[in-house]
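Quick illustration, no need to memorize.
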Amino acid sequence: MKSAGVQRQYSGTAGRVENSQLGVFLAYAGRSGRALIDRELYLPESWISDRDRCIEAGIPENRCSQGVITKPRLAEAMIARALEAGVSAGWVAADSAYGRDGKFRAFCEARRLSYVVEVPVKQTVLDLDGRRRVDTLIGRAPTQAWHRVSAGPGVRGEREYDFAWATLPSFGDLPAGFVRTLLARRSLDDPTDIAYYLCFHPDTVTREQIVTVAGARWAVEECFQAAKDQCGLDHYQVRKWDPWYRHITLATLAHTFLAVTAATDPKAHAGWARSQSPTSAVSWR
């Protein structure tokens, strides 16, 4: 296992633990399209603690000396770079690997970056009578709190779910005009299949906007698929640090070029489209 960063670890792509390299990617989704705009290779402890192997793989000394940088910290670094480069972003969306990380949410809040981040069922939030699990709070939602809303078009038409949305109590730590909310998405086919999201945003945001952002998280998965199919994102056999970054950067650049071309050229767009509670303090919205 000499390829930089490879070890037995959980791979979301494979859905299991196996020998894999894990990258953290930042995607930008807009009305006209979406594209991957940044990337970082994750280095686990087994690599950071073995300097000889790091040297053999060409990993820079200054990177090794930083120790293990978790995926949420890598994501923060990429978001910060994007903002410093002048990228205009209204929202951050992420899966539970990032949503459950309180520091990641605090990072976004400090920058007034609205977010909709998925969290696990065991995630707790502060209520007036103590910490409560998100599934406990959602379990108290009255029937009228659930609304059927589309999370956007999918391959089989509109992705409709039932959503419940509640404002969480404030403890004086929020910027003026902002709120924290809890969103739940329930499957129409299986009412026990519920996804949970923590949100931070201006109080003027509507239910439809929140649901749209929650659905937009899949943009990164769509970017992966397009970049693999059309730009060779995963078609590489490299072992060292620099070659990994060179290949991934070139593939994401090619994907961005295609996305921009599709957004600005009607003929290219057509081709691209074919390929592609009573006892709770929460307030139900």
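The radius of gyration is 20 Å.
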